[in-house]
Amino acid sequence: MSKSVVDGNHSHSDEQSNDVARRDGRWRDSHGEPEATARGHTVLAKLTTHLVDTYSKCGLPRHEQPKTARRLLTKNSQVVANNGWDNCDNNIVLRVRDLLDVHTRSGVAKTFVVLDLLGQGTFGQVFRCQDVATKAVVAIKIIRNHPSYYKQALVEVQVSQLVQQDKLHSMAHPSQVVPSIKLVDFGSACYENETVFSYIQSRFYRSPEVLLGLPYCGAIDMWSLGCVSAEMYLGLPLFPGASDHDQLKVIVDTLGWIVLKTAEEYARDCHTTVASSKRYFKHSALPDIINAYPIRRGASTDEVSKERHSRAAFCDFLCGLLQLDPQNRWTPQQALDHPFLSGRPYIQPYEPATHRRRNI
């Protein structure tokens, strides 16, 4: 009786192994090479036939997807709230290949499989997901499980659907500007008649009225637009304040005087220390900063003249956006009508058409 050897889930007799060796052209009978060589070929056949099946059987836990440990995506992964779903930050804890059931505004239920974490912030997490039905890859934002974040998320959805109605962004800065999309991230947006937040806008782009704790309106976005426009031209923030007090000081140095507390008074009243920021520019006044920016080497006399004229128009445009008094700050329509944007010849001084601004 021939001896059977189990290899994976298949069996082969010595006679079958011999047939394999014969086909290889290396089999020798008893008058040829020693018997040890024949055994060596037999062992080789046993070890290599159905090798993939053997490896799969030996490494079964690794090949069975349901038993594979799934990578945690939420940074703080200890669940402590919401019946074992949320962490202490009220963020849902998700892993790779988790399933999300989502109901769209039209009432259609969809299922998405979680692929990866794209990012997270104050309001929640954004996951890279795939629609189980259509295989489309999308980004899904899951806000924190807290009433205040839920209410603000509803405002964000509503504001994102409004294009022409009164609204303000309140977080305009370079990372929020996308070519062809204009402006993104309405997480801190609010209606002009519902300005409930006092700490808004990134500091470098924060308007004087917000810095001073005064009532504000949509004019704060025009201030931010002016800051972003200058930074896109100069390559550096126009007002790089290290604190709110220092931010006001930089603004005053550049645009003119506002009655401010001294650094000592501010530190005493706010129970803090006043840091001074790094100054990026040699000059202080806005026109001097713009005009001191280097002109391209090798420019012809005509090109230099056109550049000077363009800078004068740009400086005038910035001055309209960076008015310290929000009531005097240009509206979006006034800014759009300026020759710097419209392409019309710039003739000093530019007087914008009167557009009604909502009173603060």
Would you write up a description of this structure?
The chain has helices at 14-23, 35-48, 51-58, 60-63, 147-160, 208-211, 219-234, 244-255, 263-270, 286-291, 301-321, 332-337, 339-342; strands at 4-7, 10-13, 99-103, 109-120, 124-131, 137-143. It has 360 residues and is α+β, with helices and mostly antiparallel strands. The protein folds into three domains: 4-67, no CATH class; 70-144, no CATH class; 149-342, Transferase(Phosphotransferase), domain 1. Strands 3-4-5-6 form a four-stranded antiparallel sheet. It has a two-stranded antiparallel sheet with strand order 1-2. Helix 7 (219-234) runs antiparallel to helix 11. It is elongated and about 95 Å long. The protein starts with a strand and ends in an 18-residue tail after the last helix. The relative contact order is 0.06.
Topology:
Blueprint: E1 4-7, E2 10-13, H1 14-23, H2 35-48, H3 51-58, H4 60-63, E3 99-103, E4 109-120, E5 124-131, E6 137-143, H5 147-160, H6 208-211, H7 219-234, H8 244-255, H9 263-270, H10 286-291, H11 301-321, H12 332-337, H13 339-342
Antiparallel strand pairs: 1-2, 3-4, 4-5, 5-6
Helix pairs in contact: 1-2, 7-11
